[in-house]
Amino acid sequence: MKPSFISLDWGTSSLRAVLVSEEGAVIEARSAAGGVMSVKDRQFEASLHAICSDWIENFGCPIVASGMIGSRQGWVEAPYLDCPATPATAARALTTLQISNRVDMHIIPGLRCGSKTTMYDVMRGEETQIWGADVAPDSVCVLPGTHSKWAFVDEQSRITRFATYMTGELYGLLTKHGILGRLMEFGGSDKEAFVRGAKLGLAQLAQATHVIFAARTAGLTGEVPPAGLPDYLSGILIGVEVASALAAEKVSAERPINVIGDDDLSSRYEAALQLAGLRSVRARDGATIQGHVRVAREAGIVACESA
Amino acid sequence: MKPSFISLDWGTSSLRAVLVSEEGAVIEARSAAGGVMSVKDRQFEASLHAICSDWIENFGCPIVASGMIGSRQGWVEAPYLDCPATPATAARALTTLQISNRVDMHIIPGLRCGSKTTMYDVMRGEETQIWGADVAPDSVCVLPGTHSKWAFVDEQSRITRFATYMTGELYGLLTKHGILGRLMEFGGSDKEAFVRGAKLGLAQLAQATHVIFAARTAGLTGEVPPAGLPDYLSGILIGVEVASALAAEKVSAERPINVIGDDDLSSRYEAALQLAGLRSVRARDGATIQGHVRVAREAGIVACESA
Lengths: 307, 307
Description:
10 helices, homodimer, DGOK_C (chains A, B), Nucleotidyltransferase, domain 5, alpha/beta, five-stranded mixed β-sheet
């Protein structure tokens, strides 16, 4: 397979580089812990060379990157693109810099939606995952994570709007630094406690800052054992998120929700969606790489110099 | 004035002791940093003597205590009393221990409401404040704090139900340990940012875990200056709490909400209630002491041995 470009998924905590063929297939994949937050003194170029200098040197491959690398804390700030957005509009808004006087690195813009009068929302990296996940037109996507995203893709496959839920960060803060964590025993898994929490959260979406206190009272009263409390809280927070997102959009029970992610967290969202009476479908793996392929093709980034 | 009993407001972070007269007036008040969490090796009796051994020795005064001192982490666990609850039912459910083989210390039970099928809620200390705040029958009380409480007092002045909102703890966690704090400058005050946040929170009560993300995007887009972001987040969280509490109960705009507390935080709640179109009334100072007086009288704790 002939190399076409280097796909960089450069987020807050990790860096993944993939050499992509002209057909859009993975020739080789590498990963490193060099996320944006762990790069010292802004030595981004050194981190890049550490992971794939050979691809740059040997093939002169251009680079397509997405994620927090384009944030203010990243290498170069790639201004947000307003919704509705597609691979084509993103391809026209790339932020490009030259690497080693030889190849171009193109950073895909993050997206912005909302308004000054209510609130803005932003994403960086998830837009590329959505475009690569090959979701059906006119459907809803959820990308579970520290800051979960719910995005709406219209009939023309445009991302029209999205919303961030701080579910993962709240779970981390409440369990690691807050009073709820004090009654908890960590390390186990309690599916039943998760389901109880999710049902409570789904029913009490408009009482989020109240209902999380159930993870304390259920411990105090012995309703949920200490080892079940972490999953109980996880269920409450994910239940609140799912119900809130569904309340904000009139989501049809006919059409499955696209869950984009490939870890245990996605399974929790699938379970919560099921409890909410909705179907879900897990997106294919490698969504980010396929998103890069789509944007690269729209931008005419098709071949390495010496491939 | 003849001393009648010692009032102890013994919470998580502080200890206040007041020598109360037979008329229910303050003879002398003292405070110490010896909150339940700072007492080492369960040396509660030593902390008590350090603050008021003279009152015990000289007058043989009985003690009435409320707050976290009756929690599992406190001196002796005082089991929760179920709602509806009054000073009279609390007086029949005191947990009593003897101090120095001489005087009795009576711990007022915390309250519990809710149910196994939804969730339980608990309070410790706030019930005493409510009873002492002399609120009108059939009214709503809010006690701002790390864990704010909203309580409902019926025509017979019984606390019928209440709900905890983790507003203060969430504010602390999100600003001290979370990503929202990274864009913030602390130390100032920005009333306008607070009002903007409160309006957003009031309007988006069913989107709490989403709308707090506005405290990041408003910083990224320059909508709110870094020094205004702490108050913006405070407004969002208090707005969400006020709207959620009002949504859970059909609160009449005719009757003012009782705000029980005497600090800057209470002023924020008053501002948010006003933005929600409601009136509020600040409860009198010394509510805890007056709550102790009511329970003490119901329990027949009326005089010191040698007063």
